[in-house]
Structure formats: structure tokens, C-alpha cells
Amino acid sequence: MTGRGRAALIVCGALLALGCRRAKERDPGAEQARPPSGPSAAPAPVPALERQELLARLASCEVVHRGLLFDLGTPGFNARRGFSFGPFTDSVPVDRDGATFERVLTNKLSFDFWLDERIERPMVSLRVSKGTARLLHVSIDDVALGAVRLPKDDIRIVATPGAGMPLEPGRHRVHLRFRGIPRDEKGPVAEIDWLRIGEREPDPTSYAAPTNEDIVADVVLDRVPKKSLVLRAPSAVRCWLRPSEASRLKLSIGQWGGGRGVAEIRALRDGQPPLVLQTRKVSGGESAAWTPVTIDLGAHGPGILGLEFAAIDSTHGGRLAFGDPVLVRREEATLSVPRARVVVLVVLASVDRRLVPPWGPTGKLSTLADLARSGVAFGRHRAPTSVASASFATLLTGLPPRAHGLEDVHHGLAPELRTVGEIVKEANGRAALFTGVPTSFRPFGFDQGWDVYEAISPVKDLPATEPMARAERWLDRELDGRPTPILVVIHARGAHPPWDVSREEALQLRPPEYSGTLDPRRGGILIGALRARKQRALRRLLDDDWVRLSALSEAVLIKQDAALGRIVALLRNRGVWDETLFVVTSDVGPGGPPDLPFDPQGPLTEDRLLLPFVMKLPGGALAGREVQVATGPEDWTVTTLRALGLTVPPRLAGLDLFARAHGLSPLVARAEVASLPGSFASRLGTRLLH
Questions:
Q1: Average pLDDT, the chain
Q2: Which carries the bigger pLDDT value, residue 83 or residue 262?
Q3: Packed helices 543-573 and 366-374: angle between N→C axes, nearest 10 degrees
Q4: Could you give the CA distance from residue 330 to residue 332 in angstroms, rounded to a whole number?
Q5: Residue 232 in contact with residue 102, Cβ under 8 Å?
Q6: 84 or 546, which is more confident?
Q7: Closest CA to 377 of 357, 396, 401, 397
Q8: What is each CA distance from 595 to 179, 368, 537, in whole angstroms?
Q9: Contact of 379 with 628, CB cutoff 8 Å
Q10: What are the respective helix, strand and coil percentages of the chain, to the nearest 5?
Q11: Considering the domain 216-329 in this protein, what is its CATH number?
């Protein structure tokens, strides 16, 4: 399999696993933590980068047992469906008596797989439940493997007769085509528990599949319990990942049941023979005990690595147990997050980061320039989508769009989702959101979970700085109270139309003697009318229009910069500036030529995804630094909770920005994922996958 193929599988597996983590219950524990009353409180540790549970990644791993086994109805299966992001309409996962099945709704189902070894006489077997289809035709690539008759009742294992050409190592696609479906039948075509691709066997119906439910168990050896990966010999589980230089694998190996066993841990790379990292012989029975194992993964070089846990041999029906497999850092990090009493998040809508310091000229943006000097700038901060409301939702929930469900312009934030404002409130803190951007108004669900929520419509005769002015007044009142954690979020119009520029001010903007259509008040309407034109050639701005657009953006940002300066001055005057985490960022980029700007759901291009992100830490830590590490809005959520001394809900996968700014890499490389319904754009190192 090529490196690009493995990278794609890692990306898709992570994407779809995140999509299944949408919370239906509230995460307990955050309300138990209490923030410090002053700056002398002990700083919080940074555990998010220090431990990766491998069993949590199992859905995207490969199971090898007499061939490749695919457990349908799981996120790992969906990750193989042509690198598609979903949603999928041809099948849905269902649960039947604790087992996961894929309910097929159409007459065809296809997915990709990779082989590391040649299969001489390929055979496909399935455990399938009855449906409306009577026959199943199976092919791999363009080679037919035969037809099998599906059960009329109950659940059975069926297998192809085994024919066709040998399968070489590399990428392949299996096609399942269902036939014999009565025209008047509306029910599911079939339900599939698992599918296996391997060498032809005399009796495939006796096969006992090690599905995800079967290979994870709580194992107790010598009175020591461990959550374990349990395998019968011969079988293996392969997890493809990109570990950092500091990653170490820690686990314990034992024999569960009677007899003796041999376990191996191997490293796999494309085009190279497997490298055996550890071999352990263990004994079961009454004297069974755990054998601890530690492996330095960083010593085996950078790049994508397949970590294989293999049960080589076992006697008397025993199984090999790989207990509590985790990735930890080679040397324990001593970094700590500076504690904050106040957190201010300013989201300037649709800002091209080339207009603001440190990426653009300082000009009259004195407040933003001062923040760049006193804070840390993140040069690879990327939005999770081109939909402004979805990106803003990720900031407030710490979840990617596929998890929080606000994936397009037609959806809102679900009431059961827990925002960072709500977590602060539960910790006896105060939280407020002031917005002048319709994408974060009440119809999109952003009013939930705040002590104060105020929305200022752009059509009102109020300046674009009104959300900042109201936030300043609210902060002034709150700072008179008892010392509790304070969170204020400001969603300002930024560079998005309508632009708060008078006709007199517009006359002074470049280009001189402008005669185009971009009027400060009606510019958004005019751009929308251009976007509605049928001919693509007519959906564009002229060169002078782009110059005027840049000038309008600069003019309104100067006014909002001054309003931000008044908030900073308030915090300084009230003596809490050194206890403040202050962040300025954007929701999405405006987009550039030849496309029209401000598309509500534009393509996933870098000019819409790459965002400004400047963070002033409490105490002025890391002042004036610019770091080139991959970050996203979900990282702000985690960093804010840690800075306030609150417990991070376990479903949040963000990274601590303070540790990232210090150069601390995650134990496993994280794909930078941006998504829309039906499409995604992901970066993994230097690889870009669309």
C-alpha cells in the first residue's frame, strides 16, 4: 500500500470516528472543578498530549485472521468507502443483540481494502442476515468471484466459490451486488455482520470472526485487571499511525486461559519487510501474570507506521492478551498552563489574515499589533469548514462539524450539546456572548448556555463595534463582583459586509475615482446577486472591485481595532490583564479570486481555511513568538478550560495551545480536517487529501 493510501486511511478513520462521538449525554465532572482565586494558584498539567489509548483507535485498525476481516456497522468500515466523507445513503449501521450490522438499503455496496501479501485463490465470506435480496454477486476490482444464495431466514455465513486471478499487494475494491429483489419489497436488502477476504477454504461456514466486540475484554491476571486486546492464534491487529519522535508504546502481555502463547509486536512500513519489535513467550493457568513491555517508537524514524499486535501461537484454547496498550511520551513533559481568571475570545468574521499583524502591515491596527507583540501567533491555524456558523460552533463546543452536527448553512446547534460557556457557568463562573454576525444568532442555537446573550442585527443603525462596546460594559460590571472565572465571547462583523463606512469615508478609499458596484451598505447584496448568476463567467469581481474590497476591509478593521483597544485598556486598568487569556481569530476566510468572496458554503480552499490566530497568555508568556504548528478552533476550547482550571470533557480531542507553542508535538500526528456535507480536505504533514 502506498504512503498516500495509508495516510488516507488514517485521515478517514479519524474523520468518521469523530463523527460517531457526537454526545447524547452530558459529560460529568466539569462542574466539580473550581478555578483559582488569584494568579498564585498552581498551574494545571497538560495531559492531553501525554497519553493516547490505542484501544480507542481500534475502529480504524485492521484485523487479520485467516485473511482480512472487516467488521461492518463500525466507523472503520465507513473509512474504507472510497475515502468518502458521507453521509451514506446506501446503508446504515444497526445493532442486533449486541453485534453491529450494516443494513444495506440499495442493490450495490462497495469499499476499498489493501493487501500486504498476495492471495493466490481469493475467497470472500460474509455473515449475513435475511433481507429482500435472494442472490449476492461478489467481485473484486473487475474480477467476478461468483454468486452466493442469501439466507431466507436466520443469520448464516455464506462464501464465494473462490475463482479468478490472484490478488496482488496493493489497493483493491470489493463490489457487492444484490439481485432477486421483488419490486414491491421496500425493506432492507440485507444485513451484514462482517466480511472476510482470504484464501479459499474447504469449510468457511465454521469460521468464528474476531469482531471488535470479541477482541476487547477486561482481563485479570495475578489479580491485576487490564482492558485488553485479546487474540486467538494465529491472528493480528494492525493500527496505522504517525507517531512523533517522543512516542513510546507501553503495554503488558499475558496468556488468558490455559496453555502457553507467543506474542509479537511488529512495525510495518510500505515496501519494507516487517520489523519485529518484541517477542514474548507467556504462560497461562493459575500462574499467569502480566509481562510489561516498553518500546521506543521514535527510534524507528518518522513517517507512517503500522503497529501490529500478533498472536503467533497458543495452546489449550488460550488467547494472547495485550493489556492497556497506550502511547506515552518518552520523557514526561513539565509544561504547565498559566492560569487565567478572565478569557476573552474575539472572532472577527471573514478576515483575510494578510490584513492583520503579524501576517499583514500594522498600519493603524495598534491593538492587534500590540497583541501580536505580547502574545503568540499560530501560523498554521486552520478552520474545520468553510461554513462560518459551523466553524464558530467548533470553537464553542470543541467538536468538529461532523460531531456537533452543524455542517451546513441550514442547521443549528443541537440543544443537548454542551458549550464552553455552559461549562464555565457550571463552575460558578460567568459567561457571555455578544454577536453582530447573523450566523451566530438565535435561530442557529447559539443563545444556549450563557448568562448573557445579545445579538445586534447588521440592519440596525448601530456601529459594527457595538458587540465590543456591550462586552466592555458587561466586563466592567462583572469585575466588580467576587473573583470568579469570566468568559466573554465576541463575534464581530470583522471584514464581512455590510461595511461600517460612511459615504464620505468611502470617497477616500482606494482605488481613486472608483466606479464599481461595491457600496459599503449594499455590497453583500450585490455580491450575492453576482453569485446567483447562471453563467460562471459573470460570477466574478473586477480588479478594481478587489482593490475596493480590501480597502473597505481595512477601514472597518481599524474601527474594530480601536474598540478592542478599549477592552484591553479596561482589563489593564482593573488590574486583571496579567490574569487574562485574550484571543483574536476569525471564523472563516473570505476567499479570493477568481471565486466570489463571502460564499456561505464555499469550496474547501486554503484561502477560506487558513485563519489568523493570536493568543495573549496570562503573565505574558511566549510574548512575540510565531509558531508554525497545526492548530484548529477545537484547541482553543481545550486551552480555555485548562487555563480556567476546569476539567476537559473526555469527548474533546483538542490539543493544548500552550504546550504546542512550546514545541510539544502530539504523540500521534493529527490530520487537519476540514469538511462539508459530502466532501473534505485534510492535511497530514505534507500530504493533502481531497
A1: 89
A2: 262
A3: 60
A4: 7
A5: no
A6: 546
A7: 357
A8: 45, 28, 10
A9: yes
A10: 25, 30, 45
A11: 2.60.120.260
pLDDT tens column, 159-189? 998 666 899 998 899 999 999 999 888 889 9
Say if residues 185 and 44 touch (Cβ distance below 8 Å).
no
d(CA 261, CA 230): 12
Instruction: Specify the residue for cell string 462542574.
Output: 31
32 has pLDDT over 60: no
How many C-beta atoms surround the C-beta of residue 502 within 10 A? 10
Domain spanning 10-22+26-39+42-49+338-689: CATH superfamily: Alkaline Phosphatase, subunit A (3.40.720.10)
Please state, in angstroms and rounded to a whole number, the distance separating the CA atoms of residues 7 and 16: 14
Task: Kindly state the cell numbers that stand for 334.
Answer: 513539565
User: Would you say 398 and 652 are in contact if contact means Cβ atoms under 8 Å apart?
Assistant: yes
Q: Which residues of 410-449 are buried (b: 16+ CB within 10 A; e: fewer)?
A: ebbbbeebbbbbbbbbbbebbbbbbbbbbbbbeebbbbbb
pLDDT digits (tens, 9 = 90+) for 286-306: 999 999 999 999 888 778 899
Query: Which residue do the cell numbers 450575492 mark?
Result: 528
Please provide residue 652's backbone torsions phi and psi, each rounded to the nearest 5 degrees: -85, 130
Asked if 468 and 567 count as a contact pair (C-beta separation under 8 A), the reply is yes
Which three cell numbers, joined as nine digits, stand for 283? 504462560
Q: Which residues is 280 bridged to in the sheet?
A: 263
174-199 burial: b if 16+ Cβ within 10 Å, else e? bbbbbeebeeeeeebbbbbbbbbbbe
All CATH 2.60.120.260 domain ranges in the chain, comma separated: 66-206, 216-329
DSSP calls for 310-374: EEEEE-TT-EEEEEEEEEEESS-----BPP-SEEEEEEETT--GGGSTTTS--TT-HHHHHHHHH
CA distances (Å), origin 674, targets 73, 129, 640? 24, 37, 22
Q: What is the pLDDT of residue 96?
A: 83
Predicted confidence (pLDDT) per residue in 148-159, tens digit: 999 988 899 999
High-pLDDT (> 70) share of the chain, %? 91
Minimal CA–CA distance to 126: which of 58, 190, 54? 190
pLDDT of residue 520: 95
Q: Report pLDDT for 678.
A: 78
pLDDT, one tens digit per residue, over 368-403 is 999 999 999 999 999 999 999 999 999 999 999 988
Kindly report the pTM of this predicted structure: 0.85
C-alpha angle 103-106-111 in degrees, rounded to nearest 5: 75
Could you tell me if 363 and 379 are in contact, meaning their C-beta atoms sit under 8 angstroms apart? no
Record the cell numbers describing residue 503, joined without a space.
459615504
CATH number of the domain located at residue range(s) 66-206 in this protein? 2.60.120.260
336 to each of 530, 639, 656, 683, how far by Cα in Å? 51, 11, 10, 28
Residue 177 makes CB contacts below 8 A (sequence gap 6+) with 107, 108, 136, 137, 138, 139
pLDDT of residue 1: 45
What pLDDT, on the 0 to 100 scale, is given for residue 87? Answer: 64
The length of the chain is 690
